[in-house]
Amino acid sequence: MRTTSAILSKIFTQRFYIQNTGFFLVLFYLLFGVVNGANLIAYHKALMLGFLGNYSFLLLVMLLWTSYALKCVGFILKTFQLQGYDFLFPTMGSVSKPARIRLWLLLHTAIYMPVLVYAGIALIVAVQYQYYVPAALIVVLNIANCVWPLRLYERKLAQPDVLFFTGHLQRWLNRHFTKPPVLFFLYELFTNFPRRIVSTKLFSAGVLWLTFLIMERGEYFDLRGLQIGVMVSVMIHMQLMVHHRAFDDTYLHFMENLPIRLINHYARLIGVYVIMFLPEMVMLAVNGYTKTPIGGLITVFCTALSLLILFRCLLYFSKMNPEIHVRYTMLTSFIVLFMILGHYEWPAILLLQAASAIIFFKKYRSYEPYIPPES
User: Fold this and answer.
1) Backbone dihedral region for residue 130 (phi beyond 0: left; psi -120 to 50: alpha; all else: beta)
2) 31: exposed, middle or buried (C-beta count within 10 Å: 0-12, 13-18, 19+)?
């Protein structure tokens, strides 16, 4: 049992802290590096008294602790999916349930330990200054954050194909809904890679929000400025395009040989990116409908979709690795930018659409999956 614990500790605990070294360095700097060493204890004591004496601040701190617990849970569950770690299923499954629960608790608390240490010190301060209700809330939350993940780990052993919190949703969708081809990749993102799509959408929304904020503070609204923000938002989606190619290479490469017309494949590609960019379209419409006519918004939408489709079609060149892809997308973006600044938006859109169609119809049938060169 001790040998098993040591091996699992290396697999989970050590890997977690090694992979998140940058995160902990930034956290250490924010907590200890921005304060004079002589005032460090007083600073943290004041910080703890601040959230102990203010329930809104305490709620924010508890949400941060729970977010860290989710990070820990996600890491452990994701490790089971990594290539080379398949042995974890029979290894953990061969351990008796009481011993396995103790192992789960040991592994989880080991990577949740930074929060437990800080919460423990805050608990001592809370008792010292008679903040008994906040102290009770801290105890209950941290016990809960150490206990509820154990059920997820057990479920992972029983249902290896289910990822994180999406298990019930996946099974319900698979039973009641036949997915059309246009949703295959989006379903893959939302069920197996939710953090990737969510982080991309958050960054994209942040760029658009900042664009509107800058234009409102400048007391002017120029459609060209909005289009520049949209172009940056499109480029944020480039990692999803590379993922999309890998998904097609792995799961949908057989569709090239099916008796399906090229126009239908092209329509499916367009549909994927129309749906993917739909949240940004809604955000643009809600914030911009009072500032620009509907024709201006349609121009912005068409520019964004044309760029998305062309950037994806560039990946049908078999030797187009991510580095080369970035170069071509940057070059294309600069050309489109100058055309937009010169009020040639629709010629730019037509050129983008024509280039996308030519590349797709010429390369789709002859495309071979990209194989990275051996180092």
Assistant:
1) left
2) middle
Q: Considering only CA atoms, which of 308, 314, 306 is closest in space to residue 346? A: 306
Mean residue pLDDT across the chain? 84
How open is the CA angle 201-202-206, to the nearest 5 degrees?
115
CB atoms within 10 A of CB 195: 12
Cα–Cα dist 198/190, whole Å: 9
The CA distance from 152 to 163, in Å, is: 10
299, 346 Cβ separation under 8 angstroms: yes
CA atoms within 13 A of residue 293's CA, in its CB half-sphere: 1
CA distance 222 to 228: 10
Distance, in Å, from the CA atom of 215 to the CA atom of 194, rounded to the nearest integer, reads 32
Provide the sign of the torsion angle of the four alpha carbons 75, 80, 84, 89, taken in this order: positive
Calpha distance 153→313 (Å, rounded): 40
Q: Any long-range contacts for 138-146 (C-beta under 8 Å, 24+ apart)?
A: 138/62, 141/62, 141/65, 141/66, 142/65, 142/115, 142/116, 145/65, 145/66, 145/69, 145/112, 145/115, 146/105, 146/108, 146/109, 146/112, 146/116
Instruction: For residue 103, give the nearest of 154, 140, 165 by alpha carbon.
Output: 154
For residue 210, give both structure tokens. 């900042």
Which tens digits make up the pLDDT trace of 186-230? 888 877 777 788 888 888 888 888 888 877 776 667 778 888 888
